[in-house]
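re: ur question from yesterday

yeah so i grabbed the chain u mentioned. its 280 aa long if i counted rite. heres the sequnce exactly as i have it in my notes:
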Amino acid sequence: MKLVVLKGGGDAVPLQPIAPALNSTRAPGVLALSGDQMRWVLINMSPAVAGQLGTDARLLRHRGLADAPVRAVVLTDSQVDHVTGLLSLRDGAPIHLYATPAVFEELTHTLPVLPLLQHYCSVHWHVIPVAGESREAVFRVEGQPTLEFTAVATDGPLPLHSARPAAPAVGETIALAVRDVVTGQRLFCARSLLGAGPEALEWMQQADCLLLGDDAIDPRLEAGEQVEAGEQLLAQLDQVGARRKLLMPVPESGLSTAVPAGVLARHGIELTADRMEIDL
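ran it thru and got these structure tokens back, copy pasting raw so excuse formatting
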């Protein structure tokens, strides 16, 4: 299994400082997965990554990533940063889209990305059956016969446009466990430790590689409180036996802001960068 991180950190510098939002729903980058390094599945799709796929010649070294004849996309939620990039793919290849019933509902009614998209390109919907009492589901992705996916319900954070902010449905946010059935290697990726829930924490213990969005610290906390919260998160991550632990940075937020890079490194935690490659 090969992973490529897209727009998940790197040398981009904002023109102006970014102030932490009080209710931040900013989402870090997109992950590309492949079992054969010829066909790829994208985990979420931001507008920045959609543009990158069409303009970054350095991605051509990954056969079938920039010039895919069919796009497979798995959505972990309906966050704006995770779904609006689908519209930027509207003039390209057919899309096989995998999402839970709750996410499909959001993208059909509250944030109607799918009705718009279907006017432009072929979209094949694949429902991930995490809903109601079913908090986990195993599924396969078109073109990835050697990868087994398990979706695990998590508890947020919800997008600001959520139709049910007070009573979210099961499946509005999920984490993903991916197993390479040939090598046995396991990846676990989640938005963050915040709200991961007991099921997700259990799956983390089985992972060879852990990939987390780095937005698990409330930016409203004072500096000292952020450090304390960071130490608590580090203690949790120390309990996970994965040989690689990676954080996808969020500007001006998260563990990588509260804790010096040297401390993260001593705990075996890496920060991702754009086009970073991980082989499992």
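noticed a couple things. Residues 223-238 form the longest helix (16 residues). also Confidence is low (pLDDT under 50) at residues 10-25.
anyway ttyl
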